[in-house]
Amino acid sequence: MENEITxxxxxxxxxxxxxxxxxxxxxxxxxxxxxxxxxxxxxxxESETLPDIIKASVDKKLVIYxxxxxxxxxxxxxxxxxxxDALSLSGGYAEWLREKLENREITERVEESIRKKFKQTLWSxxxxxxxxxxxxxxxxxxxxxISGGKDSMLMAKLFQEMKRHDKFPFELVFLVMDxxxxxxxxxxIEKNAASMSIPITVFETDIFQSVYNVGKNxxxxxxxxxxxxxxxxxxxxxxxxxxxxxxxxxxxxxxLMSMLYGGQVRTMMPKLHSDNFEGxxxxxxxxxxxxxxxxxxxxxxxxxxxxxACRFTDTCTTCSPDRPVSKRQEIKQLIAxxxxxxxxxxxxxxxxxxxxxxxxxxxxxxxxxxxxxxxFYDDM
Length: 380
What we know:
Blueprint: E1 4-5, H1 7-12, E2 18-22, H2 26-31, E3 38-39, H3 42-45, H4 52-55, E4 61-65, H5 71-81, E5 85-89, H6 92-101, H7 107-115, H8 119-132, E6 141-145, H9 150-165, E7 171-178, H10 183-195, E8 200-204, H11 207-211, H12 218-236, E9 241-243, H13 248-262, E10 271-273, E11 281-283, H14 291-300, H15 327-341, H16 345-352, E12 363-366, E13 369-372
Parallel strand pairs: 1-5, 2-3, 2-4, 4-5, 6-7, 6-9, 7-8, 9-11
Antiparallel strand pairs: 10-11, 12-13
Helix pairs in contact: 6-10, 13-15, 13-16
């Protein structure tokens, strides 16, 4: 198509002759992007006063990409009207990712990195959480739930490493639920699993379609439905536990979100009994692993995963600067700001829910019963 360039044509360009521009939001860019790209968001590219990096590249070919190459086509056309040699990457980031994952086999390198380079930051933290919180016991059959992102894929590889140590008998099922993924996202999950020798079991649901017109509570309903489907399928497969890829950062963010938005002191627990599925447990073996170390592992192995496969953010509309910032993103930014003043702030938040002094708490719940400090005041 006119004003477009293919992924293979892009690879043939001299690097100094072009400027590769990722017009997605900064969060998507940080999660994963084409090597050498600069992040210039849509609102900057459409403003009357273009960023300096664009102005300085008037003699270069501008190659612009978004998620799937729809909005970038329109943006490239507008820049051409302003005199720039601008082209849109056909198929966008999704097509580049598809080509990169084609016929890839990286199992040995990924596994060696876990055993050696990331032994202390990933493998040891994983093993410590399993041991400390008694997450895996002899005879367990665990459904390792894979969403397709960096966290769950790493969790699968860590479980495989644990299985190789063969300390006691347990079984694994690598479970992928397809709630209505786009073909590109389904492809990325399957190719990543194949390239890293993760034998996934995929089952399909219509969750995205069911919640598409629900409104502002769609994300909450989607999460609840996903959890229910995972429990059901795991139980059908004879599993007694489902493993989720939540990490250390998720734990402290959840703690702050509960305080600031929920008005309660509540954290994400390393394991939970299911209220609705008797005999089933949720476990979180990545509980002590920092997200930055997961990103380090991802980038060291040149891995690329899906960011968010949700129907609401699965199209090129993710490029929109009007997309609302989630509460979790607000908390992430708050923690980043606090860390500039106190580097220990993350660990202090984590330790705060390990060191609760009930003598200094006004009111608390235990087994759904409410107690106040007055109940024990005269005994203090």
